[in-house]
Fold each of these.
Amino acid sequence: MLESIRVLVVEDFEPIRNSVCLKLQTDPKLQDVGEVSDGLEAVQKAEELQPELILLDIGLPTLNGLQAARLIRKVSPSSKIVFVSQESSTEVIEEALRIGANGYIAKTDLGRELLPGVGIILSGNIFISSLPAHSNGGLAAVLHRSTRSNPHVVAVYRDDAALVNGLTRCISSALNFGSAVIAAVTASHWNSLLHMLSTSNSEIDNDVRQGKLVFLDVAEACATFAIGDQANGERFSAAGNFLDRAAAQANAESPRVFVCGECPSILLAEGTLDAAIEIELLWNDFSKIIGDIALHCAYLSAQFESKDKAHIFERVCEQHSVVLGW
């Protein structure tokens, strides 16, 4: 990472622009090199300044943020673009990712997510802000259809109920997209998932019978994937059988299989961080070798919230391509 990160702030509403700039000043590594309020001017400033980071509103005069981003990609291709917007629709986020954005931060969460999100983005990840409940389920489809191949997402939920709700929406979205789904979750979470899925999809029982929706008990999966504190690659490779069988039931072109679950989170809760990280790495290897899979790892926020656990969150994020805010 560069010692000084030059940041261009593009926002037409002055109070928010001032708030963003004040927040940036609290991090000595971030240098505010320009503030503009117009989409066309943003393109011109980006070409002139070649900033490392551009914080870009969507609702701008002359050119909106999406239009400006397409042009900025041509005149300042090395700049990381982060949309800061009140828009929360999955369609907008999908288009932002397709353009090549490195992140999306909701204006409602600026105070909490701006600096952590920027830090994650500068480390090489995509960061997507926490979203209203009705939007969360669409993220699986957004990442499926975006230009990012084989996304490996880390999603952090505030409690068990939020985790079940989030996974339910993601699984439903993936099935609607045509992907097969493998869910490695606890038995109680699986029962809750099935109940919630069945209320909106009468075909869930058929999906389970046909192998399009596959349940792996997380306790058994962890026992299979890990021995002591070290995950075992040879035993983990047995998961390839599940992937092959699930892929055969999919009707999506890519990715054919959506894998979600709690294995790394459970291992982390048991104090075996190295095993949790190793499993994340092994799934990354599967993604490269097999292809056509999307990964969604569910953690609880209590595992990261205290300052002495910040390094754990950093290690977890390093293994993923996309980080979802919470």
Amino acid sequence: MAHRRTFAVIGLGRFGSAMATTLHEMGYEVIGIDASADVVRELADRGIQTLQMDVTDERGLRAAGIHAVDVAVISIGENLEASLIVVMLVKELGIRTIVAKATTPLHGRILEKLGVSRVVFPEREMAVRTAHSLVVPNLIEYIELSPDFCIVEVPAPADFAGRTVKDLQIRNRFGLTLIAIKRDGRQGTDSTNVAPGPDDEIRAGDVLALLGSNANLAKLDELSR
């Protein structure tokens, strides 16, 4: 049986609590750590393994078994000093994959210099997602690949139904690449056509996965009408 990764979430504010809860609901082993007794108790009531302690206490982290987890999520955005101390501690404990929350660009740059695997800006990412959903009201999914490129999922416009990829000329018209067609098979035939060919037909109810620049994303407002 393949090894299922284990996680430590250090800092159980809104982001950390949501992260620990989601991982737990997905069936992964999670340990949540925070200095607040109320937060720790709340998550413990949901069946999540938790510990109340000073998150900057190296001996306490080691005693808690943090060195044995595969991934550490550092969700301490408000206290910059504590965030950086905990990142250094978990690195010294030998954890290779570290995801750290940042609240400012400077905070993020420092975390990157410390060698974390991934820096996340929850507020920024939510703002970006919301902004795109306002530009494209029917947006189902938005995945940022870089500051300039993204993948989006949108329902196929009604006038696309019955037409082939070649007929629609999506790249020429919108500067976007169709990378997949997701089909909801109401008769139990759900499917995803990855890298559809020019003769593949789009049907009513299909979802289109499109790759392109943020500059061209605005054209999806026209496509989705």
Amino acid sequence: MLFQKRYWERNKVEKRRHPSHKVIEAYVIPKINEIRKIIFIDKKTTLLDVGGGNGFFSYYFDEICDTTSIDYSERMIKLNPIKKKYVMDANNLKFDDNSFDIVFCHALLHHVDHIQKVIKGMKRVSKKYVVILEPNRNNPLMFMFSLIVKEENKALRFSLSYLKKHIESCGLNIISSFSYGLIVPNKTPKILLPFFKYFDIKFPFGMTNFIISKK
């Protein structure tokens, strides 16, 4: 975990796109819409964004529900624009059982040492739903990126079936699972958005694996 922490505390984190960036918006909103097709969300809904970083998802969730974000990196969470945010290790969530209606994480599990420990912690603090998004190693570009960048190497394991196996072994019931989209939040050029939006669909080689589960 130490080399991962150093990765997220490096100087380049300040250069990450702000959550309001058009590419981030185009990446996040369709995924939130997919969640809302299955889970009812309104202003009274409580949601925990685990490993929320600088707020790509927190920023938009906070517009529609009562959102709390945590991250291991103090530098990253300081960049997160929402009010309810804490420096916290995903391996040791400092919340009571059944604290949130929805517990969500995006691109976190391939950075942790103990995947099932994190999932079980998310399950514990959730009243009902756990939603997990991870890179899809079956996408050729994602495979190459994960191969080249040392801190992303664990993503090479993350097929949809691999992710489903871990989630089910933690006692969660999967409602929906699929791979989705081609936009990469920090890499996709804004000028190419009209093209990439055509791929905001479910297909096996989508960039992101997507699982909605419940207790």
Amino acid sequence: MKVRIMVRATAPWTVARYGFLIFAIACLGFYSYVSIERTIYQTYESRVFDRAPVRGSAALATNDRTTPTGHVARSSLPLQEVIGRLSIPRLHLSAMVHEGIDGKTLQLAVGHIPATVLPGQAGNVGLAGHRDTFFRGLKDLKTHDEIRFSALRGDFKYEVESIVVVEPDNLGVLATSSENVLTLVTCFPFSYIGNAPKRYIVRARQVLPPPTAATAVE
């Protein structure tokens, strides 16, 4: 009588499953770390911003210059410098805004597009953010929604005028304007995995504050 000894080799799929499991755990750990870092950073920067002693036009006066057309243009600012806080009340969205749109800046905050003006200056204020972090809620944005921007110059309110989807090379959405407008840029579709092929553009117009009593009398 022959006794057959069966040696069961480890199946390739078993090894693959363990590999995928380890990879998934590593990704989850990295995502958790980045998410926690972003939350702590935003909380800290928000508190520091709220305690800033100077909140007026003089704070950024040295960054202004006037063009031949009479419009105020923006000089270059250091990357990651705090610009202010963006908020959309209906969406419960609030995020600190920093100068620049490099990877590190957009990981921790909404980025102010350097080629555009700052809040309070005549023209087009451009902001960019990731669709899977700060700007995820933009998919539920509607026309006439209110957008607030608190900056060192003061507090500004905007009303959403239009929402469009464009090609990524369409730079016309960031063109200068004779009016005070705000443009939010993120990738589209929101559920796309990988580098999204389109850009989701929100255009809002600044709502002028009501005149003061002194102005009304004059």
